[in-house]
Amino acid sequence: MPWDGVAISITRLQRMRRRIPQSVARLPALLLAVFSFCPLPAAAQSNSPAAIAMVRSAVAAETHASHTDLSIWTYWDHDVTPGLDATYFTIETRQGTLRRMIRKNGRPLTRKQVQAETRRIDGFVASPSARAKASRDSAHDDAQAAQLLAILPDAFLWTVVSRSPRWVTLHFQPNPRYSPPETDMEARVMSAMAGEMIIARDGDRIRSLRGRLTHNILIGFGLLAKLYAGGTFDVERRPVGDGRWQITQTHVHIAGYALLFKTIGQQEDEVKTGWKPSTDETLEQAARTLDALAARP
Question: What pTM does this model have?
Answer without folding.
Answer: 0.81
